Every structure is written in structure tokens, then in C-alpha cells.
Amino acid sequence: MSLAILIPVSIGLGLTGLSAFFWALRNGQFADPEGAAWRVIPPDPHPPKKGRTDDRLAPDTQDRDSSGRL
What we know:
The protein is mainly alpha-helical. It is rod-shaped. It has helices at residues 3-26, 33-40. It has two helices and no strands.
């Protein structure tokens, strides 16, 4: 192929890509790049509780003070 054909075709494709980029800027395609990324990631499930769940009289270790008493 001749350079007389390839040069106008490459300039036309470049202008088409540039115009598509400016169209995307004007129409808000790049308004929230972080939001779409975080919508894909599911939230972490709650960690399972340690210890027995049927024992209601067992003291919770988080209720203790620094001396080890309830």
C-alpha cells in the first residue's frame, strides 16, 4: 500500500479516537473512577464469634478491666 493511503487513514483513526475521548469527558464517563471499583468488591463477612454460643453465663473477656476482674 502506498503512504498516500496509510497516512490519511492513520490521521483519521487518531482523530476518531481523540473525538471519542473528548465525548467521554463531556458525558461524565470519568466522573467516579473509584466508585465502580469498590462496587465490585463484596463486603467482608462478620468474623465468627469465639467460644460457645449456648453458654449465656460465661463472662465476656472484653468486660474485664486491667486487673482481670469483671
